[in-house]
Design brief:
The protein has about 150 residues and is α+β, with helices and mostly antiparallel strands. The protein has one domain (about 5-150): START domain (Alpha-D-Glucose-1,6-Bisphosphate, Chain A, domain 4), CATH 3.30.530. The protein contains three helices and nine strands, in the order E-E-H-H-E-E-E-E-E-E-E-H. The protein has helices spanning about 25-35, 35-40, 135-150; strands at about 5, 15-20, 45-50, 55, 65-70, 80-90, 95, 105-115, 115-125. The protein starts with a strand and ends with a helix.
Amino acid sequence: MTETSNASEATSGDVVITREFDAPRELVFRALVEPEQFVRYWGPTGTHVPLASVVIEPWAGGRFESTMVPDDDPDNPGFPMKAVFVEVVEPEIFSFHEPDSGVTTTSTLTDLGNGRTRLVIHQADVPEMYRSPEALAGFNSSLDRLVIHLATL
């Protein structure tokens, strides 16, 4: 697979990450919204997401919840994320809002032809600690894991 990744300068509370996948848009979209697939790649390297912690209801008003748990500390309660979907247009776009952090994430999937897809993730109102180089590297490691997952489908 060929992939590219670019993080914005992460200023003014916005983060934009772009990644291209050697996979059809519909396949990428399903991987993003199906819990059984989501747990196979989500979270930075060194974490996992238990399937029991995931709720993905891909429609406006639906819940999007998961908990990342450190691989080396299974007793750690983890890092929960709770959001509400704002918009879902399969397989083109979905956005969700996290009330606790104030972050709104919009993911846009573009069919590039020849079975390739561009994913642009735009996050608005991102707290500073989630805009650090380390946080962005962790986010990108999740997308690296998604590349590997898509290759198995």
